[in-house]
Amino acid sequence: MTEKPLITFDQVWKTYGEGEASVHALAGVDLSIRRGEFVAIMGPSGSGKSTAMNIIGCLDTPTSGRYGFLGVDAGRLDRNRRAVLRNLYVGFVFQGYNLLPRTTAAENVELPLIYRGAPASERHKLAAEALEQVGLLGRQGHTPAELSGGQQQRVAIARAIVTKPTLLVADEPTGNLDTARSHEIMELLTRLNQDLGLTVVMVTHEADIAAYAQRTIGFLDGHIASDQLNRKAA
What we know:
With about 230 residues, the chain is an alpha/beta fold.
């Protein structure tokens, strides 16, 4: 039996405003992403890529159509139930790292576990494991100011994977990094995708960064304009 997709869009529309002032950020999008895929989403400003990412991450809901996540019609869940879905199954990585400045790397990584009510001993163990997975085992006690930009993004990735999510949503994860650090981060995300079977959905505007993904989806004017496998990843 063929495994059902992890993520499905079935005629998803997202409309902002009303009447003549309405704008269709997404206009009847159909999409499926399998468990374990690494997908890059690209497109110019206003193309719908960020709206699609927000729906995929259960941060927003469609105006109409169906968004399926793990077989659940996530688009019809209320805010609290979507929050539960996010906390259990989704990790997020952002362009700006979003680390607490006066908090150590280990304490930043532990935050999602604190929200879950995990005991201290479990938090310390899982945070150490996550930091080791991103190559920062010796940096647990460092604050963000004591880390380079690439290291800060590694802490952010460790925080995103510490709960062992099914899906990692990455929004311009290399946007604040130089070329060398950008490729290091992409090699890390590729390894996590392969070694952990982690599904990764990444928004980027850089073609060389998208090339690390197995598949690139291009958005334009609220529609999917292209959907292709990448040679580098193949």
